[in-house]
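job 3f2a | input accepted
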Amino acid sequence: MLQLKTCLKTFLTHIEIERGLSPNTVDAYRRDCERFLGDLAKKNHGENPPTEKDISDFLVAERQRERGDASIQRSLSALRTFLKFLVREGLLDEDPARNIETPRKGKYLPNVLEEEAVTRLLDAVVEHPSRHPMRDCALLELLYASGLRVSEACGLRERDLRPDLGIIKCTGKGSRERVVPTSRTCMEAIDAYRQRERPALLNGRDTELLFLSRGGRKLGREVVAAMIRKYSLLAGLPGRITPHTLRHSFATHLLRGGADLRIVQEILGHVNVETTEIYTHIEKSELKKLHTEFHPRG
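job 3f2a | predicted structure (298 res):
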């Protein structure tokens, strides 16, 4: 009998230790595969090997869960990697996903807030204070002022901040480090949080993490998403607003202000083979100068 849950644990250890995938990627693979195993359990599948129909049914269920095209593609990619691992380990005779076509990804314009809407969102943090309003204010200011991914913001350490230079060091996809500029308003909000709220959130713990939960642990991405959802409703903003919405807005507002596309790509950490050479010659001082000149809250 094939113990899929046990196999999944072995697979996750394999991709983390032997393949060296980042913790965020491993966690994403875990969630995707667990949803698949959960769907199998609901079908009373028992411990029988998964079939091609099971994969197809899973993709249909993902669509019914209102997951986007990119998320469904990633789910299938994670599942394929898991199933190929089982075949290599001799736990499956054949890969049931081998004939499944990857769903096409539609072309959608990113959801972008206008500058006035961003101001309303940030004002909602002050007008409707939570238990930790300074932390929330500093985090939202940072997501918009520097365009960080939510995982990058949650992983920041105190030593990553350089208030004197107006820059922050962050670790992005593929464990690539980069330096990004931020605004004076953002640095002031972070400083207020560090001085007046963070000591209480530490709760006796010894950690360099900048943004903490009320238990003194790393702030989760889901918590940040829920936070932004709450404040967007309080601000009366329509549509689904996520941490990535602030990242899209950051980039759009810079480009609208006249910033060079290549520089915005470096700030965002969108590095590829064709553009890496160009980015290595851009001085960080130039990034800060352009950020101050073009960003509406610079």
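job 3f2a | The domain at 115-294 is CATH 1.10.443.10 (hpI Integrase; Chain A).
job 3f2a | closed
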